[in-house]
What we know:
The chain is of the alpha/beta class.
Amino acid sequence: PEGGYGSLSLDYFTFSSSIADHLRAASLVISHAGSRSMFETLRLGKPLIVVVNEDLMDNHQSELAEELAERKHLYYARPQTLCRTIANMNLDYLIPYPGDATPVAKLINRFLGFSDD
């Protein structure tokens, strides 16, 4: 295409019982903020933008996504900010997820009111 940006290939679906092949083939993943989807993508080392469903009550997805975004493992967006997030993202900014669940477990414990010990 004109402008030197290269080509864009987009695959999308509403549900897949086996998402692993899609994730491995992707150069960027845009997903809902479910913990399984997030961690499966992060473990594969793929850049990730999570879009939080604001209609959920007690939105734990938002808290986990915000924490992982603060740690620079992913980008966090809402439906109305997704286009801006894509336009402004810098994939070099992201830090690979170390695969250690301890920080996330501590976050969940704090959320539930348990000690960090």
